[in-house]
Amino acid sequence: xxxxxxxxxxxxxxxxxxxxxxxxxxxxxxxxxxxxxxxxxxxxxxxxxxxxxxxxxxxxxxxxxxxxxxxxxxxxxxxxxxxxxxxxxxxxxxxxxxxxxxxxxxxxxxxxxxxxxxxxxxxxxxxxxxxxxxxxxxxxxxxxxxxxxxxxxxxxxxxxxxxxxxxxxxxxxxxxxxxxxxxxxxxxxxxxxxxxxxxxxxxxxxxxxxxxxxxxxxxxxxxxxxxxxxxxxxxxxxxxxxxxxxxxxxxxxxxxxxxxxxxxxxxxxxxxxxxxxxxxxxxxxxxxxxxxxxxxxxxxxxxxxxxxxxxxxxxxxxxxxxxxxxxxxxxxxxxxxxxxxxxxxxxxxxxxxxxxxxxxxxxxxxxxxxxxxxxxxxxxxxxxxxxxxxxxxxxxxxxxxxxxxxxxxxxxxxxxxxxxxxxxxxxxxxxxxxxxxxxxxxxxxxxxxxxxxxxxxxxxxxxxxxxxxxxxxxx
Length: 475
Description:
It is built from 15 helices and 25 strands. It is α/β, with parallel strands linked by helices. It has 3 domains: 3-40 and 101-145 and 270-332, 3-Layer(bba) Sandwich (FAD/NAD(P)-binding domain), CATH 3.50.50.60; 164-267, FAD/NAD(P)-binding domain (3-Layer(bba) Sandwich); 345-460, FAD/NAD-linked reductase, C-terminal dimerisation domain (Enolase-like, domain 1). Strand 21 (345-347) and strand 22 (353-357) form a beta hairpin. Helix 3 crosses helix 4. The chain is globular and about 95 Å long. The N and C termini lie far apart (94 Å). Belongs to the class-I pyridine nucleotide-disulfide oxidoreductase family.
């Protein structure tokens, strides 16, 4: 007869959200069982955020060497050891991995089951020959790369974000299907490290982002030699390792065959609902993931779903936010609601592109009357010293000067997005952004300058000028 475990909480999935939930709950002395069928740390540590940013860091150093003559420093063309670059990526993962390890979590008092989880009924999960019957479930099983139904793709060697970091030689010609953040980041990284790169998108690359901000990123990648074909549909693929053919059809009706050495599929991610036997637990789901309310509860009142599998935006920081919320709900019985329209996101190209809250187009679609304030990087003194003057900030301002959205593209825009996220998340106004003291010279001043421009029209108002003229009479 199978052993039955009866913890307070059973967490399914040891990615970012699941680990945060387990660690926080165990810290309060709550019995927790954590089930993970794959690698501890999930996608973010092993295949996503960590390796991609490590690869981008190596590519940044290569680009810096090429740009050094602009600053009076000559170093020549960088010599790139691609195998050493990948060892750097692996070393970064290995350095972080102990924080997410089985040993660490068992040390925290968590019972870790390295097995696949499947619901037996609404109250019970089977994993590794054991049954787990907790008071509450937290399903944090994440997502996997989406492989689209392109003719020939299943039979043709191709890469995803789960396999591309295993390459030991630089692709001669990397063809990428998908112009979202993953596709754009990998395109620039591999181009800077020596590969020829062609990126294909069926619509508009970075199409979710503000068009003016996205254009800055696309212009930079094209200037670095990345071929970007938009409104280009992939009809079929064929070939063998080292020689891939991609047949495309463009919006104007023309066709072409693109030959490359490697193919990367980066068209999105699919929630890991298969194999969980959610039907047995009475948990509703669809192709987007498990159906949850703003309180993250599923149709089974004993179960919550967080992170990628919960059907919303697929970000590590959102999974962490979800984890904090469900811990409050389960441990302290506090009501929770996931925030809307305040979630930041960043595409970590160079220059990076950050967005938080609503774009101008999204504000208009929601019937929000908004004013858009912009300020260029070229008007920032620190940007001039760094010779990084490409880019701009956009503030979307609603009634009474309240910030409802902000987007920024340019040097260090990923870090500046933190300030914008705080401002919008706390419901601040352009006046608040105008009045905060920014050390000089810093790139964050760009937000302050944009906010200040909101008040420029007041300087031309007759009433204001008459008031100043009146006050001048008093000396």
